[in-house]
Amino acid sequence: SNATFTVNGTNQATQGNSNNSAITGVDLTLIGTGSARIDVARDSVAFSASAQTLVDKYNAYVKASEGADKFGVGAKLASQLQNVLSDTSVGYGNNRLSLNDIGIQRDNSSGKLSINQTSLKQAFSTNPDNAAQLLADVAKGLQGIANRNTSSTSELQLSTRQLQQSLQ
């Protein structure tokens, strides 16, 4: 049947006994009458997994593009990627976070990223909102570079077509 309930003093109603709009990111299943306390915790395991995925995907790109980042379009692309990694930050003052602050470092000789798990966990426990936002912003920046450089009118695609024509 339909349910009525109160969250933080606000009366709410739902058709059925499920609600996913009362608390952002939380699915409620109402199974009885009375009161209950709901504690919502941050998912540090998911955050660590996201950071690892970002590092793994970036390192796979670095390996695949090895040698191509020295000249022309490859060098421009490498520069754009480095700018996203080094310039992206969130927060202000003492709450400002960069990748280095959350334990993700770039090795200058190989170009690959690594994670200091202790620093990553500490950054997430200290400031989970900014740490999560930083990962999202870096991923968005990297995705933007990929989108710009793989469109049919990108310099990379034009260079590829010119090379193919030259080979023919």
Shape from CA axes?
elongated
Query: Strand pairing plus helix content: what structural class?
Result: alpha+beta
- Order of the strands making up the biggest sheet: 1-2
Largest sheet: 2 strands, antiparallel
Number of strands: 8
Q: What are the segments in which pLDDT stays under 50 over at least 5 consecutive residues?
A: none
Radius of gyration: 23 Å
Structural commentary:
The chain has 168 residues and is α+β, with helices and mostly antiparallel strands. Helices cover 49% and strands 18% of the residues. The protein has five helices and eight strands, in the order ββββααββββααα. It has helices spanning 44-64, 72-87, 117-126, 128-150, 155-167, and strands at 3-7, 10-14, 18-23, 26-29, 89-90, 97-98, 104-106, 113-115. Strands 1-2 form a two-stranded antiparallel sheet. Strands 3-4 form a two-stranded antiparallel ribbon. Strand 7 (104-106) and strand 8 form a beta hairpin. Helix 2 (72-87) runs antiparallel to helix 4 (128-150) and helix 3 (117-126) crosses helix 4. The radius of gyration is 23 Å and the shape is elongated. The termini are far apart.
